[in-house]
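Before surveying the methods themselves, we first show a specimen of the format, giving the amino acid sequence and backbone structure tokens:

:::
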Amino acid sequence: MADDLYGLLKALAIERAHLIGASLGGIVALECAIAYPEMTRSLILMCSFAKPDYYLQNLGRFWVRAIEKISHALLCEEIMQWVYSREFFETKRQEIETARERLRAMEETYDIKGFQWKAEAGINADASDRLDRIKVPTLVMAGELDHMAPPSLCERQLVKAISGSRLVIIKGAAHALFDEKPNEVNREIMDFLSSVIQ
């Protein structure tokens, strides 16, 4: 996937980019920054990690098995309770219901292999021994209530290993912090990019 990202940037004639990714997308951005440092201007990693801990490995393996037993839509409905905070469920009921409807609408054409491959990619990710290769400004963002990639994991695996990186914790947000607190997340991103561009 990192090679695909590199190929897309080349096809678009983008010589250097500010890479941003969340969760598995953060791992892809991380791998791309390591493999293609000449194309990376800065890096923003949200709710992500360098290597899944035992908790995440078990969760990912469960998802790989579970999707074969139940529908994609039903599994993703369950996963929503892992990625959103309790407050989001209580205050954004219409958004949750709309997401459920979309999941159900795509059920007949969805290929579960794609889901499994993505989960396997996350389970097997390991950039922990190569993080010293990242020399660009790096912002790490974590949701205060994230159980999948909690701030402590982001700090331990990313911030302490990437020279000059810094951690921003988004209060009251879980794994999908960009959905729950878009204003706060966007403000942090713009402030970071402004400091990098100057």
